[in-house]
Specification:
The complex is a heterodimer.
Chain A (H helix, E strand, L loop, with lengths): L7 E3 L6 E3 L6 E2 L6 E2 L6 H21 L3 E5 L2 E5 L1 H11 L1 H30 L6 H14 L5 H12 L1 E2 L3 E5 L1 H19 L3 H4 L14
Antiparallel strand pairs in A: 1-2, 3-4, 5-6, 5-8, 7-8
Helix pairs in contact in A: 1-3, 1-6, 2-3, 3-4, 3-6
Chain B lengths: L13 E3 L6 E3 L8 E3 L6 E4 L6 H19 L3 E5 L2 E5 L1 H10 L3 H30 L7 H11 L5 H16 L3 E4 L1 H18 L3 H8 L10
Antiparallel strand pairs in B: 1-2, 3-4, 5-6, 5-7
Helix pairs in contact in B: 1-3, 1-6, 2-3, 3-4, 4-7
The chains are: A alpha+beta, B alpha+beta.
The structure holds zinc ion (2 copies).
Chain lengths: ~210, ~220
């Protein structure tokens, strides 16, 4: 038995079950948050955030995340060249950083694309697996922020005058934007849409039976 | 404000899975036990051990560690007899000074403001519920906690510390500051504090406004 079939909505903040009125607009009596049967305009919002993330993914990987000046020589580093540098010094750490900052954003974008398209095509297949995929996607995204912190820490530490300086680059800003956009995209996606029968998408009124 | 009446049947035993909308009737859970969705496996409810006292103690410890981790030098870099020290705030400050204010804001929210707000609002709500204090904004504070949690990235920052350590070791001598140990402890304690607090149970204890205490 699903809550929607009884005309009940679960408050997203406090999980109280609330009976939905015909108007569809109601505030939770326990915590005051607006309550919806499904996250409002979930698919449209997720698409918008995801497309923005995909656009930002290019500068995030192509632009330098930092520029190192050491003994008069300046070298610009992208996310990938940072991973390659690490590979020569500490390969287990290089693998972790490669997964966190290259693989995770890419896989997260692909996973959300798959979830969105399969929901829009009303796919009846592998609902439990897709829900699990969503759960993992939501959980791992934050680890991609690691390179932004690396840039911030190195820029803060390596400020020793003419000897060595590290300046953050535009790639770091683009990269942080990708991480935030994909996190917001995952948050705006409503996993319950995977389970909704046809005709119930986009949080519109229920079909007459 | 347009408010609806909750269910006639005891709605507090009923939970709809946030990920697949399946309704579940959840019996009172023994401490340390959790309930998972029978349909999709999502976590529905967890009843942490130690009641309210354990998360209160853990959040007080986290607050102290948060202060310590920010009060002392975090890492020191030594290069040809010159030294450069940084703190957690220093990482954000460096970005600001390099003309990247938006990025500085992201870093300070994820490493300091976000985690601090989670700890402070958790303590506020826990103390309010534990000692039945009529604190203002109790419900708003409890609402914020779950929305703020994903933006606290202390553990990710720690991985960033490790990576910068390895990267800079080729160029200079690195010295760990006392704040780094406080920070490592903070990660463990704040993770324990978060899992010791189940917002859903706090909502049940708070009940509906206007004093309709729930049966529990
Ligand atoms: Zn609510
Ligand atoms: Zn479920």
């Amino acid at each position: 038995m699903r809550a929607r079939d009884l005309g009940l909505a679960s408050c997203h903040t406090c999980s109280l079950l609330v009976r939905m009125p015909a108007s569809g607009h109601v505030h939770c009596p326990r915590c005051g948050s607006p309550v919806h049967l499904r996250k409002p305009n979930s698919i449209g919002t997720t698409w918008a955030l995801l497309i923005a993330a995909m656009i930002m993914y290019l500068p995030a990987n192509l632009l330098p995340v930092m520029a190192t000046t050491y003994l008069g020589n300046t070298q610009a580093d992208t996310i990938m060249s940072g991973v390659i540098y690490l590979l020569h010094h500490d390969w287990p750490l290089a693998v972790i950083v490669f997964v966190a900052s290259v693989l995770v954003p890419l896989l997260k974008i692909l996973a959300l694309l798959y979830l969105l398209i399969s929901v829009q095509r009303r796919s009846p297949l592998r609902k439990a697996q897709r829900t699990r995929l969503y759960r993992v996607t939501e959980l791992v995204g934050r680890w991609s922020m690691v390179d932004v912190f690396v840039v911030a820490l190195m820029a803060a530490l390596v400020q020793v005058g003419a000897l060595a300086t590290i300046e953050p680059g535009g790639g770091a800003l683009a990269f942080a934007t990708v991480v935030i956009l994909t996190m917001l995209a995952a948050m705006s996606f409503d996993a319950r849409l995977i389970w909704d029968e046809y005709g119930e998408h986009y949080g519109t009124a229920q079909q007459a039976r | 404000m347009n408010q609806s009446a909750p269910l006639d049947a005891n709605p507090l035993e009923l939970i709809a899975c946030h990920e697949c909308d399946t309704l579940h009737r959840i019996p009172e859970l023994a401490p340390g036990r959790s309930a998972h969705c029978s349909c999709c496996g999502a976590l529905l409810l967890h009843n942490p051990k130690g009641g309210l006292d354990r998360p209160i103690a853990l959040n007080i410890a986290a607050l102290l560690l948060l202060v310590l981790a920010n009060a002392f030098p975090f890492m020191t870099l030594q290069i040809s007899g010159r030294e450069q020290t940084t703190t957690i705030i220093g990482a954000s400050q460096a970005l600001y000074e390099a003309g990247m204010a938006p990025l500085a804001v992201v870093v300070i929210i994820t490493t300091l403001i976000g985690p601090a707000l989670v700890v402070i609002s958790s303590l506020y709500v826990l103390l309010g519920v534990r000692f039945r204090l009529p604190l203002p904004m109790l419900r708003s504070m409890l609402s914020w906690i779950s929305h703020l949690q994903p933006w606290g990235m202390l553990d990710v920052f720690m991985l960033g510390v490790l990576v910068s350590f390895v990267k800079l070791a080729g160029m200079a001598d690195m010295v760990m500051g006392p704040a780094l140990y406080a920070f490592a402890a903070l990660i463990v304690i704040s993770a324990a504090a978060m899992s010791a607090l189940e917002p859903h149970l706090l909502w049940q204890r708070l009940g509906l406004p206007g004093g309709q205490p729930h049966a529990r």
